[in-house]
Amino acid sequence: MDDILAVLKERAGRAIGEKVFPGCVVGLIRQDNTTTPVQVLSTSLIVCAGTLEGKVPTNKNTIYDLASITKSIPLATLALALIDEGKLALADEVKTYLPELRNDHGTTIEDLLRYRVTGPQLSSLQFKTFEEIRTHILERGFDGPPGESVYTNLPAFVLGLILERVTGENLPALAHRYFFEPFKMIDTTFSPTVPDTSISTGRHKLMRPDQRIAPTEIVGGVEIKGIVHDESARCFSRAHRAVGHAGLFSTAPDLLKFLEALLNGKLPAVVEGAQKGLGWEVDREWMGSKRRKKTFGKTGFTGTSILCDVERGVGLVILSNRTYPHRPPDNSAINLFRKDIADIVFG
Questions:
Q1: What is the pLDDT of residue 200?
Q2: What pTM value is reported for the model?
Q3: What pLDDT, in 10s, does the model give residues 106-142?
Q4: Nearest C-alpha neighbor of 133 from the set 260, 237, 29, 47
Q5: Is residue 191 part of a domain?
Q6: Domain count, the chain
């Protein structure tokens, strides 16, 4: 893969010069499809460019806020795994698991995974407590019966509640047990903090944000770093609660490990569901001009994306903090970068 290294670096450098983001990490993994299933070999490549905030250079272990990638990893992936285990079914109605949810309109698990319902805009509730947000959602319910797919945080939020209700575990514990621990994703977490050894606290252990974290934005003179960028998810994070629509932090090496599991057949039910667009995006323009019908992936508002083509044995990760220091007016620049990188990789 060394032949594309210089091309990827040049394109990343150009994006930094155009102020698409202050820095980025691009990770690529290819599977050797000529080997037998038992002997599948994978090779990976990681390209780092720019800085975290105009000072500290990025490196392969820089931790990024994945934003809405959380909807696919781990949320949809967990849902598909539980469906495969028979603990959940696409046709199950939401009210089966959340009987207190009003105005459910017969919505099913599949409707949630395909984002077919709308309701309260979570960002408008950012100044409420996490308990007030949850109560408001359950009392308000959906606007109407399931219809066309509309991108909103609400279905992922509700699906997260259901997964916790079904298993009796919270989302971080589920994700850790199903994916992060088995695949040795050591830097993937909803709580990117480390013990603060600079202060003696007696019995209590103070925590501080991991210094490897890329900041996501400056709002009102305050830098957002080490806590989720999404406003509504931040309310839950401050109360040490995780939600399904945002909040996961990770690195390129960790996400390449997850992609390797998908490519090597360790999660067949997840791949099958993702290729059908269950909780994942399929065949989108940002995936490049050489994408296939079953190419799937997910983007995050902060400037992140993950892409997988199982048929060609290729996985791609782009991590950036394009919202720093201030969010751009639209997604055109980051989507062009995603498309160009995908064309380089699949070309």
A1: 47
A2: 0.94
A3: 999 999 999 999 999 998 888 888 899 999 999 999 9
A4: 237
A5: no
A6: 2
The structure tokens listed for 186 are 């050591």
Read off the pLDDT of residues 45-77 as tens digits, 9 standing for 90 and up.
999 999 998 789 999 999 999 999 999 999 999
* Long-range contacts from 126-129, C-beta under 8 angstroms, 24+ separation: 126/231, 126/232, 126/234, 126/235, 128/235, 129/235, 129/239
Res 307: pLDDT: 98
Identify the CA nearest to 116 among candidates 152, 92, 86: 152
Residue burial 151-173, b: 16+ Cβ < 10 Å; e: rest:
ebbbbbbbbbbbbbebbeebbbe
The residue type of 54 is G
Q: Which amino acid is at 5?
A: L
CA distance 309 to 294: 7
Last-in-domain residue among 150, 170, 190: 170
Show the tokens assigned to 237: 């994070």
**What's the full length of the chain, in residues?**
347
Average pLDDT over residues 78-84: 98
Domain boundary among 146, 170, 194: 170
**Encoding tokens for residue 202?**
């007696």
Indicate whether 339 pLDDT > 80. yes
Question: Is the CA virtual torsion 71, 76, 78, 82 positive or negative?
Answer: positive
